[in-house]
């Protein structure tokens, strides 16, 4: 009987620890995704991975530039035998590296406050 009580106590402690950990994780995620730094990391990673599609431009609020990259990749690639898509991918890669190497304050001032759409 004592073993059963100890086992139940251990299970309850583990459940409480799991709830606490999940709560701390959720709070940390909320803080991360609410911060301005999140746009930097998200835009940088998307620029590197999906830069040819211009998704990072949409994340930063540059709709016109995002549409330009998307159209250049999807439409002009057909007419240029893939060169336009490749070029947009290189531009995205370069922008992603630039985004991720800037300091948080510099990125925020340049791309979110200053609204600098290219490089």
TrEMBL record:
Membrane-crossing residue ranges in chain numbering: 41-60, 67-100
Domain of life: Bacteria
UniProt subcellular location: Membrane
InterPro entries: TM2
Lipid bilayer topology: Multi-pass membrane protein
Domain TM2, residue spans: 37-83
Keyword 4Fe-4S tagged: no
UniProt keyword Heme present: no
Keywords of this entry: Membrane, Transmembrane, Transmembrane helix
Protein name in the entry: TM2 domain-containing protein
Native organism: Gaetbulibacter aestuarii
């Amino acid at each position: 009987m004592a073993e059963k009580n100890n086992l139940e106590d251990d299970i309850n402690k583990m459940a409480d620890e799991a709830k606490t950990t999940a709560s701390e994780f959720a709070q940390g995620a909320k803080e991360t995704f609410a911060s301005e730094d999140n746009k930097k990391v998200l835009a940088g990673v998307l620029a590197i991975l999906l830069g040819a599609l211009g998704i990072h431009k949409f994340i930063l609020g540059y709709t016109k530039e995002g549409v330009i990259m998307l159209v250049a990749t999807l439409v002009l690639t057909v007419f240029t035998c893939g060169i336009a898509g490749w070029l947009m991918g290189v531009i995205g890669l370069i922008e992603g590296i630039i985004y991720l190497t800037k300091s948080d304050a510099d990125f925020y001032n340049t791309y979110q406050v200053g609204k600098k759409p290219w490089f």
